[in-house]
Amino acid sequence: LNSPTCLLTPAMRATIHPRAHAAWHRAGGNGAAGPLPSGPKYRAVAAAAQAGPGSASAPRFAQQQGPQPVTTLPVLKVAVGPSPNDPTMPLELQLEVLTPQSGRACPVVIFTPGFLLNSSLYRSYARRLASWGYTVLLWDLSDVLDDTLSCAYMKQAIDMCAKDPRLRQYCNCSKLLLMGHSRGAKLSCLLAEQEPRVQGLCLIDPVDNSSFGPSGVGYPSSLPALQAAASKRQLPVLIVGAALNTDVVPPEANWRRFVAAAAAGRAPTWEVVLNGCSHLQFLDKQQPLFALFSNNGPTPDDVVRQITQTCMVAFAQLALCPSTPYTSTQVQTMLEEESAALNRLAPLDCSLQNMNQLQTAAPPPPPPPGSAAAGASSSESAGYSSTAGSSGRPGPKPVQASYGQLMGMRVRELKRLLQEHGVDSSDCFEKEELVRRVLQRCVLSA
Length: 446
Known about the structure:
Blueprint: H1 10-13, H2 18-24, H3 40-51, E1 70-72, E2 76-82, E3 90-100, E4 106-112, H4 123-130, E5 135-141, H5 147-163, E6 171-181, H6 183-194, E7 198-204, H7 223-233, E8 237-242, H8 255-264, E9 269-274, H9 288-291, H10 301-320, H11 328-342, E10 348-353, H12 372-381, H13 403-407, H14 411-420, H15 431-441
Helix pairs in contact: 5-6, 6-7, 7-8, 10-11, 14-15
């Protein structure tokens, strides 16, 4: 990384895992390193990191902490009985709680770590959220249990927030958000279907069952649960994906499956894909053992966390627990602005789906009777744009089809459908991209 063509500063180099260096260099027989790639993604990462969060391109929620001072409560360790794996060993539930110093009851976030990872590796996420007015629980079990049992103990942690005198003064469990990374995101989806208090999901590079970890007793797929929770309650979902996670996450289990399940359930969904990120770069600290199986991408770890935490705060503040009642259109506009600003920090792909399904406290005012806006309002509320002209002729009929039905259509049929609705598809190169565009722009609201 000392090549004169390299755009990274010394401070930036220090944030990149050594395994990423090997990926960037071409090692010769004598160990000499070749030049760095010079593609636009690499230049974007370097330029954004040099600009820093205080630059003009920084998004609305880019500052490291929110306006509220944060306090960490004493760690709670609760004996919950013998371990199902070994009845001679006790099972312990450990909770670390971060909350605003105001001492008021705040919306509750349950943050679940990835498989074999300790929740302390996500403490920066908890501190960031708490500084914006949330009480965040980082939780761990003293033994590794199956998914079904883990969800049962996660629900016990939620019940403690509402009943335990050490916690309840800080917790408003009527506003409950579930967040998690990897397997923790999967567990969050499983519990969201069972727990009606859950009002939103933030999934960080979620992983479902695959050939590496097939479905079985105690290990159900979380995709049907996510679709069911979305369809029953229009549950808002943020999904952050790592485009370079294929070394540890099979395609049949990655974030795209969660996006598809959420779309099939008509969930208001914000998808953010970090193109230069791998599965384990979200952690506060790299774990040497896990790093043997997963190479880092070109986006530095601190930028990965910066973007992910910004997305979590923005989604929570605007779509889940807004202090100001926004309309669904306003939320979509602000999240689009946030996406554009984040894309200047690192290469991203962002999409918003079904935002017209977002349940808000501020429905848009009806247009005056007889106005031109009155005729257009019905199509706007349905989440698509009418192609009717000034003659007053009706536009194309909105599509009434599920994700699965659309995936069963031919590519040319999907393109014709988009063309009929006046929606451009020239930037869609995969069938799934066309289906997402139809769901976002042409599907009739329920």
